Amino acid sequence: MSSNVNTAGENATIDLAAKIFIELICRNVVVTDNAATIKSNPESLAKISLKLAEVFQRVTGEVRKSSAPKNQAFEVQSTDLADWGTPKT
């Protein structure tokens, strides 16, 4: 099962890298009347895209972990809810 999780994670990274690559290529193409020229090396753009996607996936996972509930052992008792609205004297 862990290999399926790795494959899914790799696929998500590759999909994100492809989107980044397309965006970088679009921003580096110069189109004239009868030609199109890429200002940057496409191989370098592909490498940058993969690195950016990997970092983005890693940081996203870290942020999700840090924002996860911290008090998972907390249990709400029915008595807690019953006394909630009554004023303390």
Note down, in words, how this protein is organized.
It contains three helices and two strands; from the N terminus they run αββαα. The chain has helices at 2-27, 42-66, 78-82; strands at 29-31, 36-38. The protein is 63% helix and 7% strand. It has a two-stranded antiparallel ribbon. It has a domain at 2-51. It has 89 residues and is mainly alpha-helical. The longest helix has 26 residues, at 2-27.
Features:
two-stranded antiparallel sheet, 2 strands, 3 helices, 89 residues, mainly alpha, single chain
Mean pLDDT: 84
Q: Spans with pLDDT under 50 lasting ≥5 residues?
A: none
Structural class by sheet pairing and helices: mainly alpha
- Number of alpha- plus pi-helical segments: 3
Tell me the overall shape: elongated
Q: What integer value in Å does the Rg equal?
A: 25 Å
Distance between the termini: 56 Å
Approximately how much beta-strand content do the residues carry?
Answer: 5-15%
> What is the multimeric organization of the chains shown?
single chain
Main sheet attributes: strand count, strand direction, barrel closure: 2 strands, antiparallel
Number of DSSP-assigned strands:
2
**What strand line-up does the widest sheet have?**
1-2
Helix content: 55-70%
Element order: H for helix, E for strand: HEEHH
